[in-house]
Design brief:
single chain, 661 residues, alpha+beta, Beta-galactosidase, Chain A, domain 5, Glycosyl hydrolase family fold, 2 domains, eight-stranded antiparallel beta sheet, six-stranded antiparallel beta sheet, 18 helices, globular
Length: 661
């Protein structure tokens, strides 16, 4: 059975800054590939991250992109398109109509009919580039144009080898010293009209126009973050002597292998489409950011120093999002890849002094805390990696638990205050409740790894700190609340106020994040039954929100309020585990009923997601929910189980569930 036909890569793309159904891009790329490709429909100032509109039948070109989220924006981007009418140097002037219903957009292959240029544009990805084919039905002089997106560009043409060489230093909110993306574009023999090669502008306006001839034009693309020479070598290594169809078959086989790691049987074709669209999403990020040199060594650009280092590197993932569901899913269906990624994350620590928090190509650090702690603990507990890797990971975890960086993009914000007070004081740091709860969980993760490695003294210290979540519990209101340096809570408390002491939510969404000690949380409430009553109230409470902490409405507020699940904002990560607390506390039927409603009402391949998909995290939540299991606490090898939503499930080729058995 083939699963690619079930995948809708446009799931979640019909989004807006003010309302998200995923905030995704329809990426044609290999699993975890270094180069992604996406049609660019329009770029609006102030909304540059939303450059694809699935309802707009216009394409400015095909973008080579690395964008992990519209909020993070892109880096190393190139835009290319055929032209044969009025030749423009500006993307907004190269727009061509295309018929949305006739377009083929799959993980492994893209085909668009560009009406203005009289051209079929086909593309299939390689790991660090692509192969493309243009089929023209016009006699007009045609060009393949490379147009600016972001940053400063350079171009030159190697006439001897018929290769276009270019570079851009474009990147967004991260720290990336001396960063450049190099590109090598090889048009196959006989496709270039050497008398019609033009370079225009410089810097941010630089572009290249390569005259092409013939009705069928084929090319190969490769990129590097290291050098022009590395891009050329990668071009030869990945594409040499392989036809377009051979490369396309390799891409298809690669994707089918990944999608087959979970084989689901169900009569509901729409659910299967949603499921495999989510399976596609979980294999997009993080992106590989390492290359293979001529000696077969893995090497990578190091953003902190600008130097080249040995070993693997991965980027474009935010652990505040992905640590809760995505990496626990990898521990089941992508263990080898998980170990490789962890090596890359530890390499970041060894090279720059800090474990990554939100890398895109360099560290962005846009979300609070260091939830990579539970990604490490989960791997260690499940035997993913080796002792040397775990030892270095533990050093990185302890470093950000004990120290604070001058650059707020790195480490735990408020780490020193947390050490001093046992919580992060609200008058010293915004989002103090989330920072405290995440730190307590992170401390438990450190204790878990230390125990596995036999460091009893470290275990003893951090297992005590793991109880610091209790310092913020208010028994009167039944919520986690911020305290100042003197230990005082605000007198005027409203659990519906978003922001301030909380991250992307209010006290309702953020007070139940104690995954490592749910039994202790029960005791704070006076027992399991009283915690269950609080959860019942959460799901029945009107979805009221007050914007005080943000000053205006953010899209997460809108998304919570427009669905019928009370204060449970399943549209965002802090609420992911809340329905499963029912299952953990013995209310299995109620858990299954709530989860099934969420899956049925809020997820669909055509309609999208209930909020930002966030690099596979929400897709992984849906996959776990369909399989009837949930990793309630990454770092523990245990799951909450409910009845699956499929008739049969095979994982890694082995029977996991069959209805009635």
């Amino acid at each position: 059975m083939r699963y690619i036909p079930y995948v809708n890569i446009k799931m979640g793309t019909k989004s807006h800054m003010k309302y998200s159904t995923g905030n995704t891009l329809p990426l044609t790329q290999l699993p975890f590939g270094m180069a992604s490709f996406c049609p660019q429909t329009e770029v609006i100032k102030g909304r540059e991250g939303w450059f694809f509109n699935p309802d707009l039948p216009v394409v400015e070109g095909i973008r080579l992109t690395h964008q992990p989220s519209p909020w993070i924006r892109d880096y190393g981007a190139f835009l290319f398109t055929p032209q044969n009418d009025i030749i423009s140097d500006r993307a907004d002037m190269t727009a061509s109509g295309y018929k949305i219903k006739d377009a083929v957009m799959r993980p492994d292959y893209m085909r668009l009919r560009l009406l203005r240029w009289g051209c079929d544009f086909e593309l299939t990805p390689t790991e660090r580039g692509c192969a493309f084919r243009l089929s023209l039905d016009t006699d007009r002089d045609s060009f393949l144009s490379f147009l600016p997106v972001m940053g400063n560009y350079t171009y030159r043409y190697d006439e001897k080898n018929d290769i276009l060489l270019g570079s851009t230093d474009g990147h967004s909110q991260d720290e990336a010293r001396d960063f450049k993306t190099y590109i090598a574009v090889k048009l196959l023999d006989g496709c270039v009209d050497k008398c019609r090669i033009a370079f225009r502008g410089e810097g941010e306006a630089a572009c290249a126009h390569i005259g092409i001839k013939g009705k069928i034009v084929e090319g190969r693309v490769a990129i590097s973050y290291i050098s022009e020479e590395m891009a050329l070598y990668t071009l030869e290594r990945e594409c040499k002597d392989k036809s377009f169809e051979e490369l396309r078959q390799e891409a298809e086989d690669n994707w089918e292998e990944k999608l087959h790691r979970i084989e689901a049987v169900c009569e509901d074709e729409q659910r299967l489409s949603t499921f495999y669209s989510c399976m596609y999403r979980v294999f997009l990020f993080p992106h590989k950011a390492y290359e293979i040199d001529k000696n077969g060594e893995m090497v990578h650009y190091t953003p902190k120093t600008g130097k080249v280092s040995y070993g693997v590197r991965y980027t474009d993932t935010g652990f505040w999002d992905t640590s809760r569901t995505l990496f626990p899913l990898y521990s089941i269906i992508a263990r080898d890849e998980y170990a490789d990624m962890l090596r890359g994350f530890v390499n970041d620590y060894l090279e720059c002094g800090w474990l990554p928090r939100w890398p895109s190509i360099g560290e962005v650090g846009c979300m609070p805390s260091t939830l990579i702690d539970c990604t490490i603990a989960d791997a260690v507990v499940k035997g993913i990696g080796d002792r040397e890797l775990w030892e270095n990971a533990l050093k990185g975890m302890i470093n950000h638990a004990e120290n604070e960086s001058e650059d707020r993009r790195y480490g735990r914000n408020g780490a020193l205050a947390y050490k001093k007070y046992g919580y992060v004081p609200k008058n010293l740091q915004k989002e103090s409740v989330n920072l405290t709860l995440d730190a307590a969980y992170g401390d438990w993760c450190i204790a878990t790894v230390a125990e596995k490695l036999g460091y009893g003294n470290i275990y003893g210290e951090y297992i005590k700190r793991a109880n610091n979540y209790k310092n913020l519990f208010d028994p009167v209101s039944g919520f986690m609340r911020g305290r100042d340096e003197d230990g005082k809570m605000s007198e005027d408390f409203d659990p519906c106020i978003w922001g301030g002491d909380y991250t992307e939510g209010s006290a309702w969404q953020n007070s139940f994040w104690v995954p490592h000690d749910i039994e202790g949380l029960c005791r704070l409430y006076g027992g399991k039954d009283l915690l269950l009553k609080k959860l019942d109230k959460l799901l029945c409470e009107p979805p009221v929100y007050r914007v005080h902490g943000y000053g205006g409405e953010i899209h997460e507020m809108t998304e919570m309020a427009t669905v019928d699940f009370g204060q449970c904002a399943i549209s965002n990560q802090p609420s992911f585990h809340i329905p499963y607390l029912y299952g953990y506390l013995g209310e299995t039927k109620k858990c299954r009923d709530v989860v099934k409603r969420m899956c049925d009402e809020l997820f669909s391949a055509e309609g999208g997601f209930p909020g930002d998909e966030d690099n596979g995290s929400m897709s992984a939540w849906y996959i776990f929910s369909c399989m009837g299991m949930y990793p309630i606490c990454p770092g523990k090898d245990e799951y909450v189980h409910i009845e699956p939503l499929f008739d049969e499930i095979n994982i890694n080729g082995k029977m996991f569930y069959r209805k009635g058995e």
